[in-house]
TrEMBL record, chains A, B:
<keyword id="KW-0238">DNA-binding</keyword>
<dbReference type="InterPro" id="IPR029063">
    <property type="entry name" value="SAM-dependent_MTases_sf"/>
</dbReference>
<feature type="domain" description="RAMA">
    <location>
        <begin position="273"/>
        <end position="368"/>
    </location>
</feature>
<comment type="similarity">
    <text>Belongs to the N(4)/N(6)-methyltransferase family.</text>
</comment>
<dbReference type="GO" id="GO:0032259">
    <property type="term" value="P:methylation"/>
</dbReference>
<dbReference type="GO" id="GO:0008170">
    <property type="term" value="F:N-methyltransferase activity"/>
</dbReference>
<keyword id="KW-0808">Transferase</keyword>
<dbReference type="InterPro" id="IPR040843">
    <property type="entry name" value="RAMA"/>
</dbReference>
<dbReference type="InterPro" id="IPR002052">
    <property type="entry name" value="DNA_methylase_N6_adenine_CS"/>
</dbReference>
<dbReference type="GO" id="GO:0003677">
    <property type="term" value="F:DNA binding"/>
</dbReference>
<keyword id="KW-0489">Methyltransferase</keyword>
<dbReference type="InterPro" id="IPR001091">
    <property type="entry name" value="RM_Methyltransferase"/>
</dbReference>
<keyword id="KW-0949">S-adenosyl-L-methionine</keyword>
<dbReference type="Pfam" id="PF01555">
    <property type="entry name" value="N6_N4_Mtase"/>
</dbReference>
<dbReference type="GO" id="GO:0009007">
    <property type="term" value="F:site-specific DNA-methyltransferase (adenine-specific) activity"/>
</dbReference>
<keyword id="KW-0235">DNA replication</keyword>
<dbReference type="Pfam" id="PF18755">
    <property type="entry name" value="RAMA"/>
</dbReference>
DNA sequence: CTCGGCTCTGAATCGCTAC
DNA sequence: GGTAGCGATTCAGAGCCGA
């Protein structure tokens, strides 16, 4: 949807394309020509506010994000920083340009509110659901298994770029949703320094940027990343035939990114089309049967052969003959067996008939299947 | 984790429990006794940018010439509303109380920022991932397939309630994540009015509230919902043996909710009880193991992996490799770890087998239970 | 070669209680 | 109220090693 109007808005002064600029992103953005960029992808500091050390149950220490660039003395300081870089970014965008910002609950609400205050127009918030997040080691909170991205255009009137069909195709023919299941960046993709340690604490997976750039830019567009880090945005932009501008303050990150980019080759278009996303697996915990009201807490289940019974509890556990635990554990205990498939072992009664609870799981799975495959 | 301190904070003035109060939620909350509520679940108007009116305590109307200005003025009104109801809610919470707020990208960033500004402390943002969302018919954006909930305690110091084991149990033994897959409310659960139309535009599924209440309240807790609507919060609270207070301005919704609640029955107490954490079990000093002759002074203990050993002393301390102290201290010292659970770390030998000393603690605990139940 | 077991690690606002 | 000490707590995936 990029228009000729946007193209004319480009200043006569040449843009420093496909380079990494060294320095403070606000100053550098303010030095670049107004209205010259199609898309901004920004991964600003999250302002994590970590306190002491954290250890895993095996006593190993978690290598936390304690870098100086993530330290802000209070919300006011962080808010000013956010206000300034978002304003500089907005000035740089073409009238039909758009921005993506990624963050966690520590900062994303402040970023989102400021985006709205400045007149950006939010199209979607998008959830990156991590298939392999770090667990909560102390059992004090829910596993923090996602990050939030906000996708917004420069203004309400912007004719933003949205490649609906491309995303649908990436999603096996089904309309792309606002929650994306993508693994965290590790293995061979994760960049290491000379000592073999991770080169950057928060390197983003290329799969994430792939989806962002395929969905909301066109070949030849200019993509700017003001917090370039190790250059995932630049790498994916280069593969996909987009131009990038990176800004990064830390020399160590710039060096890693330069080296990375030098090895990247642009895909041919066929290769791009064949990349498929990883899909979520339909594991169904028994608790969902309770939450959805398919069985009520207090209801009784009966074993195969009707020799044992147990009562369902609100947390999805069973209690029967003084044994408490999962449907599998209680089944195994009552049978004196080392293991038991609770789904086929337990039955509930409806109109005098005994029905295996696995039927309920199948119903839930069917709903999930319909949802994942039905063309809208 | 609710403490007696919270219980004492309850005012002498009786709370209007298990009722729906009619009127403006801010006024009503301000009329209730301070520090009297364990949990608040709030589903405030998402509003914004939609033409329909929200509370507009009104500003003089400016001719909408400048979009940006107009937008700001709308946000300002919404922000004031948010500030006021969140402040009233915070006053009502016990020191260890907590709040859940649900919203979409239209309002959640403003709500989240204001929560932080007021001193609430965010534990998680939780994604309700809808398994059956409404598709985006025009193909101009991603399918908006989720809503965002924020879970926050009254302050950073709050000892908030988190039933880790119950949620883990609901998820079949795996730690609960911050993304919850739950279908939208439809079918038989969706309340209809006399004409057969949906009674409320945004009725939340009971499954969502089930998980919230099982995870972050205890039986007997007071749960307040300032935007009660058709009363999903009250319905699930009643089923789970929690007390509720509902506030709702619209008479039509109150009527539907009253009728709904009158049909709800509480689950039996045994079903409501959930798996308890080990922390809740009585503490057993290691010295008791010696006193009871389960281990003899001079006997040797062996570490996990058999790399270290230590000798038991008569006072219940260990000595190994010149280190003396508790089972925990010696374990930590020998491993060079910051801490160590001596109960699971140390093993004793019986008939050639290595047995963790935790077995002995479990025996003592079992005896204590018998003691407690026997008439004195 | 495969397979199984062991190790390592990832944007983390990650105690409680008794003295 | 401050502090010392007990003792609870993890999931997925990649890589490596030995059988």
């Amino acid at each position: 949807m990029t228009t000729t109007k946007d193209k004319r808005a480009v200043s006569a002064r040449p843009l420093p394309l496909n380079q990494i600029l060294a320095g403070d992103c606000i100053e550098i953005m303010n030095s670049l020509p107004e209205g010259s960029v199609d898309l901004i992808f920004a991964d600003p500091p999250y302002n994590l506010q970590l306190k002491g050390d954290l250890h895993r149950p095996d006593n190993s220490k978690v290598d936390a994000v304690d870098d100086h660039w993530d330290q802000f003395s209070n919300f006011a300081v962080y808010d000013k920083f956010t206000r300034d870089w978002l304003a500089a970014a907005r000035r740089l965008l073409k009238p039909n340009g758009a921005i993506w910002v990624i963050g966690s609950y520590h900062n994303i609400f402040r970023v989102g509110a400021e985006l709205q205050n400045q007149g950006y127009w939010i199209m979607n918030d998008v959830i990156w659901r991590k298939s392999n997040p770090m667990p909560n080691f102390r059992g004090k909170r829910l596993t923090n298994a996602h990050e939030t991205m906000i996708w917004a255009s420069k203004s309400e009137d912007s004719k933003y770029t949205f490649n609906y069909e491309a995303l649908k195709s990436l999603n096996e023919g089904v309309q792309m949703r606002s929650d994306w299941v993508i693994p965290i960046c590790n293995g061979g993709e994760r960049l290491k320094d000379a000592q073999g340690d991770k080169a950057h604490p928060t390197q983003k997976p290329e799969a994430l940027l792939h989806r962002v750039l395929v969905g909301t830019t066109n070949p030849g567009d200019v993509v700017l990343d003001p917090f370039f880090g190790t250059g995932t945005t630049g790498a994916v932009a280069k593969m996909l035939g987009r131009d990038f501008i990176g800004i990064e303050r830390e020399e160590a990150y710039r060096e890693v990114a330069e080296k990375r980019l030098s090895r990247i080759r642009k895909f041919d278009s066929e290769a791009i089309a064949t990349i498929k996303p990883k899909r979520a697996e339909p594991r169904v915990p028994f608790g969902q049967v309770i939450e959805r009201g398919m069985l009520r807490p207090g209801e009784e289940l009966y074993s195969i052969g009707n020799r044992h019974k147990a009562k369902v509890r609100a947390d999805g556990s069973l209690i029967g003959n003084d044994v408490k635990g999962s449907i599998h554990q209680v089944g195994a205990a009552l049978e004196g067996a080392p293991s038991c498939n609770g789904w086929t072992y337990w039955h509930y009664r409806r109109e005098g008939k005994m029905i295996p609870i696995d039927i309920l799981r199948q119903q839930i799975r069917a709903e999930m299947e319909v949802d994942e495959t039905r063309p809208h």
